[in-house]
Specification:
The protein contains ten helices and 13 strands. It has about 325 residues and is α/β, with parallel strands linked by helices.
Length: about 325
Amino acid sequence: MRVEVTSDVFKLAQVFTISRGSRTEAKVLTCRVSAGGHTGWGECVPYARYDETLESVTAQIEGLDGDTTRDGLYDLLPAGAARNAVDCALWDLEAKQAGKRVWELAGLPAPLPQITAYTLSLAEPADMQAQAAKNAFRPLLKIKLGTPDDMARLEAVRAGAPDSTIIVDANEGWSAEVYADLAPHLVRLGVALVEQPLPAGEDDALIGMARPVPVCADESAHDCASLPHLKGKYDVVNIKIDKTGGLTEALRLRTAALAEGYDVMVGCMVGSSLAMAPAFVVAQGVAFVDLDGPLLLGEDRPTPMRFDAAGIHPPAVELWG
């Protein structure tokens, strides 16, 4: 078996801003695993928040040997971007070798379209209101917050899209006091979910705090080992395959989180359709789906994921799985 990794860049449709900064392109790594005349592939997005770079993740993947298996991968790489790309490539390879779809190999029902959130870039309130009005036809909008002007932005988005469901992502940008002050206004404005309001290392402050709007763990939730640390703090777990280290662990985490009474959100980094395809398998029937990465791009993979009024559709076999 041959394992290869390359770097790819996809231009964004417009500048995308969160509280941590702005970007104009998505830089990803593509892993290809070849054996027996078939090649499977997977994508990952190294994330600086987790001390990952394109170079460090490339080195992790290139350090694997040709005998790597999906089960053995978990003893070779930690949860994170590198393991994600290889794990997803191995799933794709297995599906091609078996002449089946990935969900068949996983013993899952055939997937159905899912309504996904669409993320509005952080901007001045007037600009965000304009973005919201332009996308008011979408049933679910996500707002990136985590700044001193959050209320003005939230009010503006609600004015621009009065009928859309809104979820907000503070990206660890609030303190416990700020969250407590904002919570009644989130309820008033019909916010359905708050992602990671506090820094991951300070989220013990959520224990015992009233949560009138469900609170979702993002940076605090990575893989199954994270679950014990979320108890009493969160209501929802955001599963991202770049955090779990692949589809295999993501499916395990979904099962474990649901068994412990959490709702589940399936999210993504800003990546191409190749990154969304395995996450889509995890996203079946969960409370919130946030797989809008390709909608933020100005260019995508050949045979991209399809989006329409019904949501995001299953990947074509030519893309993945």
